[in-house]
Design a protein that fits this description.
Number of helices of chain A: 9
Structural class of chain A: alpha/beta
Radius of gyration of chain B: 12 Å
Number of strands of chain A: 18
Largest sheet of chain A: 8 strands, mixed
Distance between the termini of chain B: 29 Å
Shape of chain A: globular
CATH topology of the largest domain in chain A: FAD/NAD(P)-binding domain
Oligomer: heterodimer
Strand content of chain A: 25-35%
Mean pLDDT of chain B: 90
Order of helices and strands of chain B: EHHE
Low-confidence stretches of chain A: none
Radius of gyration of chain A: 21 Å
Number of domains of chain B: 1
Mean pLDDT of chain A: 96
Strand content of chain B: 5-15%
Order of helices and strands of chain A: EHEEHEEEHEHEEEEHEEEEHEEEHHH
Number of helices of chain B: 2
CATH class of chain B: Alpha Beta
Structural class of chain B: alpha+beta
Helix content of chain B: 10-25%
Largest interface: A-B, 27 and 22 residues
Number of domains of chain A: 2
CATH superfamily of the largest domain in chain A: FAD/NAD(P)-binding domain
Shape of chain B: globular
Chain lengths: 394, 73
């Protein structure tokens, strides 16, 4: 009987977190298998695609037209009545930010289908073996310190041996549940999101964020440039805070037809419909178990104020890949006790700040007076994106 | 505490946008999913918390009693 194939690392889920973890581990010489159940990464799209340039550069991702829809130069934050605080870095720091080189954009809206494929390709070129149409079925730690990983590739069931299994399988993570980690999320902390990609809505290189209970209770609405003259109009709501139990779909319809943007949206034509759950929650308290760690949405590495998760997934992937390379290089065991070091590295670099953001967010939404809450959210969002924000790098 | 009666979920597939929110909020154990990455539709749910129905952005999840087949008229 042939020996069970062995990898240092098996990563389940090839989104930004999984592909980046795999790439960093492979660059350090580890044998890495990256699997994803989908036939086409990034689809169906469940994300607006906004990410800072810093976040891409920090993990060595070239700024390629292949996945960039449009460059972003700042923010427009609106209160419920439509008053705007504009944070346009083309005006704030004109010597640094602008459309023409050597000036640079602040960030981008990316095409998640192309972006996720690009990150997978980078991992593959770094030596990672990639299997699509492959879903995880389970894992089992072994007495010798390794673990068995059970996969289904197309219709074939496959058993592998690995030192560490990485769960990068998103918010709906099954890998975390296999390990018995407390991944359960509260309905009060998962925003129900819906967005349309539309034609005939003008934008100006800014991410526009619209706060206010009337438009998006518990979350916010957005208008993002999407390239080629297209835009994204979307919102996220916390259903328990919604009036009359209205759904995201009803709120989006109302935002388009009745908000202070109704003239701007009057001719909008829907080109794509996308949705998802976005955690406005704390990071998982425990992101590791014997032979297993979680990264990205699966570990809830998501900014609880903005709901942004690409930057945090990329950074988390870099931290995880580097940590696992050290673990294997130094011949340390993949025990729960050793893997706690991964979470500690993550907390030191990012997590502690995310906990602080979570506390800020919780405090705002605990406010029972809706108009006071709206004012505080508007002020917090405006402060968050300003040049002197302490959270600029999250 | 009264135990809730098990339910079977039904998904209006035409409206489903495959966003994954129902699976993300589901407190069931691993594997309570359909082949289309939604919550399970052929297995009775004995928790019956209905969080999946609440989170669905396009309101396309409904349920019926799991024992609906055994009519008693």
């Amino acid at each position: 009987m042939p020996a069970t194939p062995h990898y240092d690392i098996v990563v389940i889920g090839s989104g930004p977190a999984g592909a980046t973890t795999a790439r960093y581990a492979a660059e350090r010489g580890l044998s890495v298998l990256l699997v994803d159940k989908r036939q086409e990464l990034g689809a169906p799209v469940q994300c607006s695609g906004a990410v800072s340039r810093h976040a891409l550069e920090e993990v060595g991702i070239p700024l390629e037209a292949e996945f960039i829809h449009e460059a972003i130069f700042g923010f427009g934050i609106y209160n419920q009545a439509g008053e705007q605080k504009k944070i346009d870095y083309r005006l704030l720091k004109p010597e640094e930010y602008g459309p023409e080189a050597p000036k640079k954009p602040l960030g981008y809206v990316v095409d998640r289908r192309r972006f996720d494929r690009y990150l997978m390709t980078m991992a593959e070129r770094a030596g990672v073996e990639v299997w699509l149409k492959t879903e995880g079925l389970g894992y089992r730690p072994q007495p010798d310190g390794s673990c068995r990983v059970y996969l289904r590739r197309f219709n074939e069931e496959i058993e592998l041996s690995a030192k560490v299994l990485v769960g990068a399988d998103g918010l709906q993570s099954q890998v975390g549940k296999w390990a018995g980690l407390r991944t359960h999320m509260k309905i009060t902390e998962l925003a129900s999101c819906l967005q349309f990609v539309v034609d005939h809505v003008e934008t100006d290189g800014l991410l526009e964020i619209i706060t206010g209970h009337e438009w998006a209770p518990g979350g916010y609405a957005w208008v993002f440039p999407k390239g080629y003259g297209y835009a994204e109009i979307g919102l996220g709501v916390i259903r328990t805070m919604a009036d009359d139990g209205q759904s995201a779909q009803e709120y989006l319809d109302k935002f388009i037809r009745q908000s202070f943007f109704k003239e701007r949206f009057a001719d909008c034509r829907v080109l794509e419909i996308q949705g998802g759950g976005v955690p406005l929650a704390a990071p998982l308290r425990q992101q590791f178990a014997d032979n297993l760690i979680l990264v990205g949405d699966a570990a809830r590495h998501v900014n609880p104020i903005t709901g942004g998760g690409i930057h945090t997934a990329l950074s988390g992937g870099r931290i995880a890949g580097g940590f696992l390379a050290g673990l294997v290089d130094e011949g340390r065991a993949a025990t729960e006790a050793e893997l706690e070091g991964y979470q500690q590295s993550w907390l030191d670099e990012l997590g502690t700040k995310m906990w602080k953001l979570y506390d800020t967010k919780t405090d705002i939404f605990r406010e029972s007076d809706i108009s006071v809450r709206d004012e505080r959210l508007y002020a917090t969002m405006s402060g968050y994106f300003s040049p002197d924000s302490e959270y600029k790098k999250i | 505490m009264t135990k809730k009666a098990p339910v079977l979920f039904d998904i209006g597939w035409n409206a489903c946008i495959n966003c994954g929110a129902c699976v993300a909020i589901c407190p069931q154990e691993a594997g309570f999913v359909s082949a289309f990455d939604t919550i399970a539709v052929n297995t009775p749910c004995d928790i019956a918390c209905m969080l999946c129905e609440d989170i669905c952005p396009v309101v396309t999840i409904t349920h019926r009693p799991a024992a609906a087949n055994s009519t008693t008229s």
